[in-house]
Amino acid sequence: MPVEEFVAGWISGAAGLILGHPLDTVKVRLQTQNVYRGIVDCVIKTYQRESVLGFFKGMSFPICSVAVVNSVLFGTYSNSLLLLSSTSHQDRKAQPPNYGHIFVAGSIAGFVQAYCLAPFDLIKVRLQNQTEPRARPGVAPSHYRGPLHCARTILREEGPRGLFRGAWALVLRDTPSLGLYFLTYEGLSWWLTSDGSATMLVAGGFAGIISWVVATPLDVVKARMQMDGLKQQEYRGLLDCMVSSARQEGPGVFFRGLTLNSARAFPVNAVTFFSYEHLLRFLS
Ligand SMILES: C[N+](C)(C)CCCC[C@H](N)C(=O)O
């Protein structure tokens, strides 16, 4: 099992995460809080109350977890494709694998990484939704004082299963959309013929956009399920969350954050695939 795929996946994922976290924070707040009039209103209110640091809330944990999540994602994808089509990463330019194999390998990777991602993503969303200014005398402290305190508090208040709140929505979000993610990347890379840096950036960027467009409806449901355990339990399950969200806010609720997901997806995934490919060449 080539180890370099995992290492390249780790470093490339961290690069993409840092670039995109501020937009991700604004997106999560728009998806789960009905207090903002839109993207600009959310950005202004966040900056005014929490300074620029407010946009980076909840990032410290994903920086650690992206090592696990992205290396599992890229490592599982490449090794699943090797098993399905007997083509290693180096062979793929000369012998493009079957698109069905690419989609299946990407979906397998999406399913596996979702379970690794679930607790980390839950903590990220809970921290991103804390809108109190930084702790100072006279200001009510936030419910969670950091990622580890958040994990301990969830374990104490919601039990071990609490750390996997929203996991099913995450699995349903990521399994097909990551199949599409890798299918778009491999297909565009093959169609653009050259295997230079520009191809990596363009194919990676569009892979990110297309996968996030498909993933956004379940991304909204996932974030709401993850926030559900914090105060009172509002939803009786994933389907109840979807039905009551649509009933109360209209079907448009499932596309909340789509603009931000798409705007963030191109640079983040262009950088992710660019660094992944170059790291692989360097490591192998
Ligand atoms: C599967 N889904 C569309 C949710 C994500 C696919 C791209 C993942 C990438 N690390 C990013 O943060 O954009």
TrEMBL record:
InterPro entries: MCP (IPR002067), MCP_dom_sf (IPR023395), MCP_transmembrane (IPR018108), Mitochondrial_Carrier (IPR050567). It is a multi-pass membrane protein. The chain crosses the membrane at residues 55-78, 98-118, 162-183, 198-221. Keywords: Membrane, Mitochondrion, Mitochondrion inner membrane, Repeat, Transmembrane, Transmembrane helix, Transport. GO terms for cellular component: mitochondrial inner membrane. Solcar repeats lie at residues 3-83, 97-191, 195-282. Pfam families: Mito_carr (PF00153). It comes from the Eukaryota. PANTHER family: MITOCHONDRIAL BASIC AMINO ACIDS TRANSPORTER-RELATED, SOLUTE CARRIER FAMILY 25 MEMBER 45. This is Solute carrier family 25 member 45. The gene is SLC25A45.
